[in-house]
Every structure is written in structure tokens, then in C-alpha cells.
Write a structure and sequence with these properties.
48% of the residues lie in helices and 9% in strands. The chain has 252 residues and is mainly α. The strands form 2 sheets. Strands 1-5-4 form a 3-stranded antiparallel beta sheet. The structure holds protoporphyrin IX containing FE.
């Protein structure tokens, strides 16, 4: 808890308006002090307007619609990424921007150099949010924060329910500035973080995941070997193919 309460490594503030660097410089996630307090309050207020039960219902309905058309479904790409973000976007009064959110999410963290595709996706997201304001950054920030983490929550819980193995937490660690150095802080045992920066979307994420998982009840894995995402900070299946029927024998 002590390290999680430390400041986050600061990001550059003198950056082009509307760029991915601007998004980082404008959201709670990479801010400290009064900026963090103000921007976090924007995110918390936006989430307060979103009913978790409706998220669960809408995630269930969207997932059911997708699986109705397919014999075999690759859950990570077809459901775990687009459904939670699409449902949350709708609840925040936005169109289905899940593809653009995924492109920005891949370039969100400060160690990544955003490419042209991420910058173009962010330009479109800012346009649907009415221009490059701190409130627009907060809305986009919610969707970007939700993207990989909720996909991981869905993927890990589905894997666990289909195999009987434990569900790992999707976000493994975070970064803080301690005594002038940037350090990695483990999130083991606190999947949604802790302290003044604890995830404000945990209830929403759990509702979204519950809706998706309910819609996938009765499905089984098509393969016994699962490949895991190769990312230092995230633990989730890279690919998870399911079909209707009993649980695959190899996992029982
Ligand atoms: C609806 C889905 C989600 C939304 C809207 C959301 C939103 C956010 C936001 C806005 C922050 C920044 C808070 C701040 O800096 O004050 C945050 C932080 C965090 N979120 Fe979420 N999140 C979601 C899902 C998840 C999931 C599924 C996990 C993992 C199980 C997760 C884990 C975290 C963690 C660990 C942090 C803190 C990072 C740190 O302390 O450095 N989030 N989230």
C-alpha cells in the first residue's frame, strides 16, 4: 500500500493537443497531486452515471448475439475486447468505438511510441467526444482503461471456469516514482490496485465480465493448449476458442 500511494512517474505536459501524448497528460492515470484529484473525480462522476446491472444485461445480450451466428468463437478478439468496451461506450452516450479504443489502448502506456493508426483512432475518439477537453480525455480514458484489463478479466475467468484452474489476475504490476526512481510495484493480491489510485471501475468491470460469462455458459474450449499474451504487465489468454458442448476432456 505504501508504494502504491507514491506518485506515478510523470509524463510530458508540453505535447501536441489531441495526440496520444496529450491523452496521457490529461487523464488521472498518469497525473499527480491536484491534477490527479480533479481528473479522477471526473472519471468517478462519469462512472456514477452508469448502472452496473444494465452493463451486465447489455454485455449478456451482445455476447449472445455474437455467439448465435457462430459455431466456434475466438473469445478474446470477438467478445472479450469489443463487448465490454462497446457496452461501456454506449452507457457513456457514445457510438461503438471499440476498435478505435483498442488501437489507442495498445499505445496508451508511456513506454510505447504511438504509431499513425493509434493517433488517427484517438483523433476520431476526440471528435465523437466533442473536442480535446479534459472531460473528453476522462471519457476516452475510461474506455481505454477498461479495454485490456476487462478483456483479461473475462479471458482469465472463462479459462478458469472451463478448466477448473485458478483465475489469475490480468494486471500484474504498475509503476511508481519512489525516492526519485521509477519502480515496478507488484499488484499481487490487489487485482484492482489500492489506495488513492485504486481502480474506480471495478464494479463496472465485474458486471461486464459477469454478463459475458453468463452468455458463454454451456460452451467448452476447442483446444487443450492455451497460448498466453506475451506482455510483461498483463496475464491473459492470447486466443481462447470455444464451441457449444461439454468441457474438453483434457482439462477435467
Ligand atoms: C469498466 C472497466 C474499467 C474501468 C472503467 C477502469 C478505469 C480505471 C481508471 C480510470 C483508473 C485510473 C484511476 C486513477 O489513476 O486514479 C484505473 C486504474 C486501475 N485499474 Fe481499472 N478500470 C476498469 C477495469 C479494470 C480491470 C478489469 C482491472 C483488473 C482486474 C483494473 C485494474 C486497475 C488497476 C490495478 C488500476 C490502478 C493502477 C495503478 O495503481 O497504477 N481495471 N482503472
Amino acid at each position: 500500500m505504501t508504494s502504491l500511494s507514491a506518485p506515478v512517474p510523470p509524463v510530458p505536459a508540453d505535447v501536441p493537443l489531441g495526440s496520444v501524448a496529450w491523452l496521457r497528460a490529461s487523464v488521472a492515470r498518469f497525473s499527480n497531486g491536484p491534477d490527479h484529484v480533479r481528473r479522477r473525480a471526473l472519471a468517478v462522476d462519469l462512472l456514477a452515471s452508469v448502472d452496473a446491472d444494465s452493463l451486465q444485461r447489455n454485455a449478456f445480450t451482445r455476447t449472445r448475439r455474437i455467439v448465435a451466428e457462430l459455431d466456434v468463437v475466438e473469445v478474446m478478439a470477438r467478445i472479450a475486447r469489443p463487448v465490454p468496451v462497446g457496452v461501456l461506450a454506449e452507457a457513456l452516450g457514445l457510438p461503438d468505438v471499440s476498435a478505435d479504443v483498442a488501437a489507442v489502448a495498445a499505445a496508451y502506456h508511456p513506454h510505447v511510441s504511438p504509431g499513425a493508426a493509434a493517433e488517427a483512432a484517438l483523433t476520431r475518439l476526440i471528435a465523437v467526444c466533442g473536442g480535446p477537453t479534459e472531460l473528453a480525455a476522462a471519457r476516452i480514458g475510461l474506455l481505454v482503461q477498461a479495454c485490456d484489463a476487462t478483456a483479461g478479466l473475462v479471458g482469465n475467468r472463462l479459462f478458469a471456469s472451463l478448466t477448473g484452474k485458478p483465475a489469475g489476475q490480468p494486471v500484474l504490476a504498475t509503476r511508481r516514482r519512489v525516492d526519485g526512481s521509477d519502480v515496478t510495484v507488484s499488484l499481487a493480491g490487489t487485482p484492482f490496485g489500492a489506495g488513492p489510485r485504486a481502480c474506480p471501475g471495478s464494479r463496472h468491470a465485474l458486471a461486464l465480465a459477469a454478463g459475458v460469462l453468463e452468455a458463454l455458459r454451456g460452451f467448452r474450449l476447442t483446444e487443450t493448449e492455451i497460448s498466453w499474451l506475451s506482455a510483461p504487465n498483463l496475464r491473459m489468454p492470447a486466443v481462447l476458442r470455444v464451441t457449444r458442448g461439454e468441457t474438453a476432456g483434457g482439462f477435467c
